[in-house]
Design goal:
heterodimer, A: about 325 residues, alpha/beta, B: Rossmann fold, five-stranded parallel β-sheet
Chain lengths: ~325, ~140
Amino acid sequence: MQDYAQQVLEGSPRAAARLISWLEDEDERALDVMERLYPHTGRAYIVGITGSPGAGKSTLTDKLTFALRRQGLTVGIIAVDPSSPFTGGAVLGDRVRMSRLSTDPGVFIRSMATRGFLGGLAKATGEVVKVLDAFGKDVIVIETVGVGQDEVDIIRLADTTCLVLVPGLGDTIQSMKAGVMEIADIFVINKADRPGADQLYAEVTTRVEQDAHLKERAWTPPVVRTVAVEDQGVDRLLEAVHDHRRFLEDSGALEDKRRRRAREETLQMIHGELFRRIRDRLTADGELEALVDEIAAKRRSPYRVMREVIGRWLKE
Amino acid sequence: MAQERKIKIIVAKPGLDGHDRGAKLLARIFAEAGMEVVYTGLRQTPEMIVETALQEDADVVGLSSLSGVHMYFFPRVVQLLREKGLDDVLVVGGGIIPSEDIPELKKAGVAEIFGPGTPTAKIVEFIKQNVRRRD
């Protein structure tokens, strides 16, 4: 077998690309490779770009990446788009806005389909971040699927989360709600040349001011206006990202964030592996179908079955 | 148990013609068939297409050309894929392509050419039958 860990560390895009496929497919071979890459992770800075469909996330990611490249930084981009709940297929279209980046050796772009995973990301997104980190990218930009109000998983992965808003999608009530409006480290008002942008800017600024009164927060999210297609305001956005990074580093919050991430990740891995093993055992000899038959015939309840299965597994 | 392997396909428009209706429709058809489709958009150079295939670990590259540039672009994509060690990636083409060009394109390594009016089910089937088995 090829030594993908070594090849990724040496900068082989092909090895990185294949390893990412293994992670997406939950191929067991990825585990050993990831274990060897793990000591080489933790260097990259992780930026999340989230917002509603059509807000301009891909264009902003493209322009932000160009700005990072001008500063001499290398960039990994993970662009997530939804899978069809009916066919399992997906059209991954984020690269359309990033065409000119595709031949830059300092940039690696990977599209991911959600494959049924909720929360705005794909299940393996966190692992792919680690691959690109070990691969040597200085900054990793994660572009989420177009989100509604409650897809906030990005904050578990990103050091800095940018929420992209555009004029014309709602009134002040929207900016009062919980969920996605709460997760921004930086608010981006994109398409700021459109009607309603000033009003949106005022509403978001008001919300930020209210937050300052309502809860103690060491960081006040800046509100940045951009016109991504015209490359306007992007340098200011990048400045805000660097500011937030400095704040996290100086206050020790970055370390806290990463510790929290490690805890969640470890629990998730244990959860995933336990589930996988139990499911594989149950499906290998058809036991699961037999149990489902009994449940469907109301001879047993799913609660009872769950307790029995877990009880037996723990004894083993 | 690993997840079921999905076919990943790049749908790309090389060259300068601006007609992407066909390519977009095909992208949707492949997605409907359960594939993960990376749509690159218009005006792709062979280098861009091949880098995309490399980073995305694509199984298939589908090229659409309506402007007569296929004799340069299609073989060039195959050649660059080989140079990158991606010789197991299936390359298929479509669009306005004179039938007398097809033998030479196939000789250059394009697996199949689908002209206008090809039933889309046939294209999907061809890809499913001929896609690489990923190790």
